[in-house]
Amino acid sequence: MRTYLVTGGAGFIGSNYIHYMFEKYGDEIRIINVDVLTYAGNPENLKEVEGRDNYTFVKADICDTEAISRIFAENDIDRVVHFAAESHVDRSIKDPGVFVKTNVLGTANMLNCARAAWEKPDGTYPEGKRFLHVSTDEVYGSLPEGDGYFYETTPYAPHSPYSASKAGSDMLVRAYMDTYKFPANITNCSNNYGPYQFPEKLIPLMINNALSGKKLPVYGDGKNVRDWLYVRDHAKAIDMVQEKGELFETYNVGGHNEKQNIEIVQLIIDTLLEILPDSDPRKANVSRDLITYVEDRKGHDRRYAIAPDKIRAAVGWEPETCFKDGIRLTIEWYLAHEDWMKNVTSGDYQKYYDSMYKV
Ligand code: NAD
Ligand code: DAU
């Protein structure tokens, strides 16, 4: 039975990946999820799998060498899928230090522990050991409006402390591949959306605010472009790269789905008005009048757009969920999981919101 060590599996993409993997492989695989449970980590995301015999949760920090080495010593880990990171750009602008620590030093520690466990005395690695580093398109910087794509060969040009820290972590993975022939891959994915995304990110924040009649804060002129991918398609890409990808290669992941932020916000409002029955009291709150243009994000990248040609040609990956269906599924999920939203927005969320937004 193949054993996966997933880091950051209690977060948005990690938890969707774990669900995807158990749905696909059932009892054929074992997953160990290591997560320190920051504000973004939520065990509730995994309550359907926590009773499985082939799932183990370990609460630990990826920077903790002893804890991570122990997991490798006690388990014959075949695959590492490394999601754990600080992931929100706005938080990185306020407090970059923790991004450097988790994203750069935490990745270095994961690489060192995996290498110590896997490398043979002759410097080679046993067949089947693979480390996948989950990264982002933001490392490539910003594209001009309506022109060009990010390819795997595009030079790195990160602008935010978040993307700079992810770029640093990617460089470390590249260096370990080049120097030690460490068996790894990197995936650089575009913006994900779907269930279990924390409402600091655009889509769940707008859904949550609209339902409670709060202002919808759109940064700058609202015309920045992001390339949106349904999270399950990202999970599938990661699995396909580990199954069929060439070791040492980087793959860009995206579905050619560029949208301006303002289009997304308007679509959320229109979809909520369409889905909610008149009898639902929340419907009265939802209106385009809530849209409020606010001060722009510092260093705000104008446009991201991924060229997914390589992953398509190499492993046959294609996204399955078009945006029209994906956004509807996502909104329906949030409508059906009001308690999940209440739980994650109780506690420190309001403090965070007040410190970030004046509306
Ligand atoms: P998230 O913020 O929802 O989840 C991050 C998880 O990592 C949380 O469960 C958190 O508790 C855990 N974590 C944080 N610091 C940790 C530490 N020191 N030790 C152990 N666990 C720790 O993030 P996400 O949106 O799910 O992103 C996951 C990964 O995918 C990140 O590496 C991110 O850079 C990358 N990515 C995200 C997107 C996106 O659109 N969200 C797109 C491309 C790539
Ligand atoms: O591109 C991949 C990246 O996508 C990931 O690496 C990051 O982890 C993830 O957070 C995401 O980064 P973005 O900065 O693109 O996502 P965010 O949801 O924060 O913002 C999307 C766009 O919406 C961006 O142009 C800023 C804008 N925005 C965001 C928020 C939270 C607003 O206009 N208002 C808001 O309140």
Key structural traits:
alpha/beta; Rossmann fold; 12 helices; 41% helix; binds nicotinamide-adenine-dinucleotide; binds 2'deoxy-thymidine-5'-diphospho-alpha-D-glucose
Task: Explain how this protein is built.
The protein has 12 helices and 12 strands. By secondary structure, the protein is α/β, with parallel strands linked by helices. The chain has a domain at 2-193 and 230-254 and 300-320: 3-Layer(aba) Sandwich (Rossmann fold), CATH 3.40.50.720. Helix 5 links the parallel strand 5 and strand 6. The protein is globular and about 65 Å long. 2'deoxy-thymidine-5'-diphospho-alpha-D-glucose binds next to helix 6 and strand 8. The site of 2'deoxy-thymidine-5'-diphospho-alpha-D-glucose has 19 residues, from helix 6 and strand 8.
The order of strands across the largest sheet is: 3-2-1-4-5-6-10
CATH topology of the domain at 2-193 and 230-254 and 300-320: Rossmann fold
In helices, the fraction of residues equals 40-55%
CATH class group of the domain at 2-193 and 230-254 and 300-320: Alpha Beta
Name the ligand types.
nicotinamide-adenine-dinucleotide, 2'deoxy-thymidine-5'-diphospho-alpha-D-glucose
CATH superfamily of the domain at 2-193 and 230-254 and 300-320: NAD(P)-binding Rossmann-like Domain
CATH architect. name of the domain at 2-193 and 230-254 and 300-320: 3-Layer(aba) Sandwich
Indicate the overall shape: globular
What is the strand content?
Answer: 15-25%
